[in-house]
Amino acid sequence: MQLRFTRTNGEVDKLIDELLEKAGDIHHPHLVREMILSALKAGQDTDYLADLKLLSNTMKEMRYTTLVFAPYRNKKKVTIFGSARTISDEPMYIKCAQFAKLLADHGYMIITGGGGGIMQAGNEGAGSESSFAANIRLPFEQSANSVMLKNPRLITYKYFFNRKVAFVKEADAIAVFPGGFGTLDEAMEVFTLIQTGKTSPKPLVLVDDEEGYWEHWFRFLKERLLVGGFISAEDFSLFTITKSYEEAVQVIEEFYTVYHSIRFVNGDLVIRLTKELTPEQIEMLENEFPELRMPGSHIQAVAARPEEADEPDLIDLPRIAFRFHHQHYGLLIAFIRRLNTF
After folding, report:
1. 241-267: per-residue pLDDT in tens?
2. Helical segments of 131-180, H only
3. Residue 138: what pLDDT?
4. Measured between alpha carbons, how far is 3 from 39 in angstroms, rounded to an integer?
5. What Gene3D superfamilies does this protein map onto (predicted)?
6. What does pTM read for this prediction?
7. Cα–Cα distance between 339 and 342 in angstroms, integer?
8. Are strands 173-176 and 131-136 parallel, antiparallel or unpaired?
9. How far apart are CA 205 and CA 53, in angstroms?
10. Contact status, residue 80 vs residue 131, Cβ threshold 8 Å
C-alpha cells in the first residue's frame, strides 16, 4: 500500500499507535509517528541496501548526538576547529589551550573534533569535564585524544555530515584556528550557514597566528570574492579576525550581553533580549538598519507569541520583532552587535 503522513493508512496507523503506546514514555508522539512512517516509506521506496544503511546509520548517529548533548542544553558551548597536525609545543597549540581554559573559566563548554593537534589543545585547556568531542572514524590521523578517550561526551561518527550538524547546532559560538582542508571545509560551511540563515546568528572568530594565516585569507576575500561580486560587503560582519585569545573570548561574551536568541514566528523575526530596549533605542535601530526590514515593517517591542509556548524558559524575556529581509543575514550580525552596545 502507498503510505502517507496523513492519517489515511488504516490498519498501519492503528499498529503505529499501538506501538507508541506499548513502548511508553514517547515524547511528541506525532513526530515519532512521522519518523516511523519515514522509515517504512524508505523501505518501500528502495531496495538498494547502501541507501537504507545510510538512512539507518544517520538516524542512529543523530539520536545518540541528541542523547549526549541534551543534559547540557542550558550551558553555552563553543566549537573549536583547527589542524590535527599542530604539535603541543607550537604557539597556536598553546594559544588554543589558553583560549579554551579562559572560556571554561567563564562557564562555557568546549566542542572539538576529538582528535589531536588544535582539537586536543581545546579539550586540554577546558578540561575533560567541560569538553565534548565529536570524533570521526578515519583510516589515518583521527583517533580520540587522551583527554577525551573515555569521556561519556565522546561521540564517534561514521558520517562527516552528522558530525558537522553537531558542531554547529550545539554551539553558541565558533572559533577557527589555522588548519588544512578539513578546517577550511568546516569554517566555510559555518560561513554559508550563517550567511543564508540556516543556523542561528552566532559569533565566528578566526584566531590568527603570527604569520597572518587568516589575514592572507581575508586579502583573498577582498581582492577576489568581493571585487568579483561573489560576496557582499556586509558579509564581512560574519566574522572577526584576531591574534589575541583574550579578544576572541571577549567577542563571544559580548555577543550575548543584550541579544539572547531569535525565532521566526508567522513570518516575523522575533529577537529575544536579556533586557528591554527603550523607545529611543528602537528608533535608533530603525534609522541605522533600514535595509534589514521589509518595506512597511517597523521594529516593535512585543510580548511572547503563543507559538513560543514550547520554550517556556524563554517566555519572560523581552522581545523585539519585525519583518526581516532575508538577503541580509550579514547585516543581521551587525545589527546584533549594535544591540549589544545598549
Report:
1. 999 999 999 999 999 999 999 999 999
2. 160-169
3. 78
4. 11
5. 3.40.50.450
6. 0.93
7. 6
8. unpaired
9. 37
10. no
